[in-house]
Write a structure and sequence with these properties.
homodimer, alpha/beta, Barwin-like endoglucanases, six-stranded mixed barrel, 14 strands, about 40% strand, globular
Chain lengths: ~210, ~210
């Protein structure tokens, strides 16, 4: 098997593996517990939806916070709603360097030994301990999408971006739930590296 | 040919295609003409080497400039030496967003219809017109390296990063010259997306 033949196979697999999956680029954001919302914005405060996200019931809130690290501060970091049980800050590797903190690449909610940062809001501060991650790239999809794409929940797949900066993301986690809208979630570093933007299309090439 | 078999082939090719190639992460930087050096730093000014780069005769200079765009400014952008015939600013996609400018993904020196920006130094300003790019990822290598890796100058290859964020960069340009030291050059977006840092090792998996 020579390398030229392998490339042919890769190309064919790309073309076999429609349907395409829309990209959602996640800028840095924070999910907050109700307790932390009140610490940052005031007693009894409730988030105000700004615009809906593609995943059901999720929204970008009008509220933003500042994130403070030992080396720098990120201003106007968007809060996503609704409130969650545990606050979780999701940033890029570039943000880690800017803040001067370490944050592991993790699936949402997998927070043990993750990073620390300080959140600053108009009414106070919240110290995040083991609550900061770089999100592991993943695909949200419904059960029908999963059947059509021949993958199962938790599976890791490879995803091709056929862009001006073409690349293949390996170890992309599939998340299946009937509530989910088909969407490939990557962060800003990943989007920039691949030349991808919101609603561009990618394909699964290997499961 | 099923997808599992293809993955096996990809893995085997990775293992066949040693030797590994060290990574060099290029932060934003600028190459300057002698005329622009003097406009920015003063008449008769000569760059002062700060530290050598891996490629022969190339150095990071002590000098830095500010880069000004319509939306923002990047401070302390490193000048690389020696002086070139034409000044060229190399930034990441993230930098493009911060500055509010467009810059195409290009090989070094391929500047037609590339981006614009203003450079600010202690002695003056330089307006760059079609002199701003996002560098196309590429591998520098000697003729001996090229023979060993079975590639030729100008060829595009795929490069696997077997990291915590594994991915395959496609369309990586091979640049062969007996002056070159073996090095895979990527920008900070690409390094962050792949979890790569300076001197990490990658492999060519397909030519």
């Amino acid at each position: 098997m020579n390398q030229a033949l392998m490339e042919t196979i890769r190309t064919r697999l790309t073309h076999q593996s429609a349907p395409a999956i829309p990209v959602g680029v996640s800028n840095r954001h924070v999910h907050l517990s109700q307790q932390d919302i009140e610490a940052l914005f005031g007693p009894g405060y409730v988030l105000t939806p700004f615009k809906p996200l593609k995943q059901p019931n999720q929204f970008a809130a009008q509220e933003c916070v500042n994130v403070v690290g030992p080396k720098g501060t990120l201003t106007k970091v968007r809060v996503l709603g609704p409130a969650r049980a545990v606050s979780q800050l999701e940033i890029s590797r570039a943000d880690c360097f800017a803040l001067g903190i370490r944050a592991p690449v993790r699936e949402s909610g997998d927070l043990a030994a993750s990073g620390d940062a300080l959140l600053a809001g108009p009414a106070g501060y919240v110290s995040l301990k083991e609550q900061v991650i770089c999100a592991w790239r993943h695909i949200h999809m419904s059960c029908a999408d999963a059947r059509r794409l021949n993958v199962v929940n938790g599976q890791k797949v490879s995803v091709r971006a056929a862009t001006e900066r073409p690349l293949v993301f390996d170890d992309v986690v599939v998340r299946v739930s009937d509530g989910f809208t088909l969407e490939f979630h990557i962060d800003t570093d990943e989007a920039n590296a691949a030349g991808l933007k919101n609603n561009d299309l990618v394909s699964i090439i290997a499961g």
